[in-house]
Amino acid sequence: MGDTRILSEVIKKVYEKNITNKTGNVAQYIPELAKVDPEPFGIAVATVNKDIITVGDVEKKFTIQSISKTFIFGLALDLIGPEKVFQHVGAEPSGEAFNAIELDPVKNVPYNPMVNAGALSMSSLIYDKYGNSSEQVILDFFENLCGEKLSINQQVYESELNTAHRNRALAHLMNGAGIINGKVDEKVALYTKQCSIEINAKELAIMASTLANFGTNPYTGKSVFGPITARYILSVMFTCGMYDYAGRWAVDVGLPAKSGVSGGLMAVVNRQIGIGLYSPRLDNSGNSIRATKACVHLAEELGLHAFEFTNKGSSMLDFYI
Ligand code: DON
Fold it and tell me: Where on the phi/psi map is residue 286: left (φ > 0), alpha (ψ -120 to 50), or beta?
């Protein structure tokens, strides 16, 4: 544990710079999400040395949504192995919206595990292996990622399942293409449950720090997935995590990241920190506006961009703590 005063000052400054930004709208296509309070804003940073720095509404719970895709890809890699996983998903950015109804026309698999098609394919592999126990396997995994007890938000789950027409269409498309092997309804339900797990920005930062720490939760010391899996996850996050904004994000922030439609966003500075943010108003790509802007500012202030000639991120704990 170190002296976090410099880092705290920067995070506070970035929070204050963005708190007045009220642009964008909360997600509308899931009725329960359309009702959420748009105002909360929280930023949490968790270091691999177990320091946690927070500002704003970091205890406010929200559903993990697409951020779960990142970790479920990792879980599938660890439990099922890369060979089989990459027969069921690609690793190419799609350049399309997260819920686009499409497969890679050359390989006939979903473009990547960050878009809905690819995530459904990963949940399907887990269901094929664990059947009715899959929900518990997934919940235990997320609890280990953040070292806290978690639960599913039943209202969001039901609301999303009742309106999951596009995800059902995708799952049926993949069933027809031989990527999903039957039990379509059960698999869409499992995927929707994984998206409805409730977390807060602090827990998200710890999950991200587990990625920064190559799969070992720095706070509990527990190995949650292997280092090679961390490499796969971070690479796909870097190229595909922000959907059709992924390219511009790479230019502006230069860190692997993943967003969710409830307004969560996590970013990772390899070997150093995990960042968890929450603010529900979204842009047209489904990314939180305040959280995105806050990451741009954090990257600028702290020199986090991986390819910046003034990069400090890769050894930032030596600089700032
Ligand atoms: O399947 C869906 O549409 C949602 N459960 C998750 C989408 C999502 O979070 C996209 N992210 N920005």
Answer: left
